[in-house]
Here is the input.
Amino acid sequence: MTEQHEHAEHANRFERGTDGPKVILAGVDGSESSLRAAAYAGGLARRQNALLAVVYVQPVLAAGAALGAPVAETTDEIAEGLIAHIREATERVKGIFEVRWEFHTFRGDAYNGLVTAADELKADAVVVGASEQAGHRIVGSVAVRLVKAGRWPVTVVP
Here is the structure.
């Protein structure tokens, strides 16, 4: 493979043959930074006339890891709360700003769930909030791992 061919192939990975993104994925988990990321992604989607795909990844814990807490019910409640929050936000700006959006729930760890979502939804861009956990500065946050994957443009919102 020639160097020029390799460069063209790499450059075209992000190009789907359209002007601008058609699907912008926003990863949300209920944290303030993820909600700011969803708002930012909503503005991008509105300006680009793209679909905003809001994704919540429900964590899956090993049996007994939750010490008897109903994890599935809790994560379902979080998802329902996120949907309600997004609906309220879109109702407030209805008539002023129109954004096409969908809400999706995936299961697994945050990184793999967002990768699966981005692949299945054919995302052109991924927007996530900056990690609010101190340990991620050492181990690496989901956002850093998404950037390192190099499969989509990734925007990290503080």
